[in-house]
């Protein structure tokens, strides 16, 4: 069945649809009363493991906001099920068994994601059924470094002392873990594609923890292997590395179909780095949505205009939406982006 709204996938392919497509990172979540109603009945872990509830939550922003893509409701940390490690959300994540020493790394049991993460693939199928081809479905994972940083730190970290300590004091242990993690993530994404996702996003949310030279030496080769692998899966890949715009030139060396841009750089400047032949996604500071409708409208228009310098542009936030956002403002953003991009289309 062809999709009723192809604009997001067209942009991923480098075409310019009639309107700039838009979706929002973390578009399903606590800022929506419909989400909070479900979370008042079930824990976050139960929600992630219930394919029917995942589908319901995935569709909430599609129905309310009118976005051009859905993103699977799950979390980058569910992959630790493949290692037999539990994550509690308190609400910040805490791992049952962080891995910090060479002995702990050696003792890890790397399970097969096709067996251990079946509930995610069931959720993909439930989402596809519920969406009934209205908009495409994006699957995702954390990038190897971001995922490994949770495994080693055991929680969200400010200084990344443990994972950086491992890079600098035990680089072979770190490299071995990155190698295994990358292979796990390849298979995890393959499972999502087999279950039916239409695109993939790789979140390197903590990329900015590393100096550029260290990112290049210790992280980029593994990320390159993951991106090369996803290119063989037959769906477009979005690569989002966050926290240091100086890393954009490095991630732009990788053949991801779409480069995610965080909010720390103006979009026109980012496109000068990526070059005009790349597709970009981003990059409104999510906190702007805490401002007035007039401010949201003017900043959104600026970003739509800047996006014209790229091969194609998918509008998004420059990081996840804040839980304090008024859903009506998020909906206004979607309307403004659609209207601004449609009205200013001159000759293509
Ligand atoms: O975007 C979506 O709507 C799809 C669902 C999604 C979630 N997490 C749901 C979630 C996605 C794509 C993620 C990715 C994710 N998870 C990232 C990468 C993106 C980013 O923000 O940088 C990271 C680093 C995580 C890890 C994580 N999960 C943290 C640090 C937390 C707690 C703090 C927080 O932001 O809430 C979570 C929990 C989480 N993941 C919630 C949601 C809706 C909140 C859970 C709740 O209390 O209901």
> Percent of residues in beta strands?
5-15%
Tell me, briefly, the overall form: globular
- Looking across the biggest beta sheet, what order are the strands in? 1-4-5-6-7-8-9
* Contiguous uncertain segments of 5+ residues: none
What are the SSEs and their pairings?
Elements lengths: L6 H6 L20 H7 L4 H5 L2 H15 L4 E2 L15 E3 L3 E3 L6 H6 L5 H4 L1 H14 L5 E6 L1 H10 L7 H9 L1 H25 L3 E6 L7 H20 L5 E5 L6 H4 L6 E3 L6 H8 L4 E6 L8 H15 L4 E6 L9 H17 L5
Parallel strand pairs: 1-4, 4-5, 5-6, 6-7, 7-8, 8-9
Antiparallel strand pairs: 2-3
Helix pairs in contact: 4-7, 7-10, 8-10, 9-10, 10-11, 14-15
Bound molecules: coproporphyrinogen III.
The site of coproporphyrinogen III has 23 residues, from loops.
Describe what this molecule looks like in 3D.
The protein has 348 residues and is an alpha/beta fold. It is built from 15 helices and nine strands. It has helices at 7-12, 33-39, 44-48, 51-65, 102-107, 113-116, 118-131, 144-153, 161-169, 171-195, 212-231, 248-251, 267-274, 293-307, 327-343, and strands spanning 70-71, 87-89, 93-95, 137-142, 199-204, 237-241, 258-260, 279-284, 312-317. The strands form two sheets. The chain has a seven-stranded parallel sheet with strand order 1-4-5-6-7-8-9. Helix 14 (293-307) links the parallel strand 8 (279-284) and strand 9 (312-317). The longest helix is centred in the middle third of the chain and has 25 residues, at 171-195. The chain is globular. The model has no long low-confidence stretch (mean pLDDT 97). Coproporphyrinogen III binds at residues 25-30, 39, 44, 71, 73-77, 89, 91-93, 140, 156, 203, 205, 320.
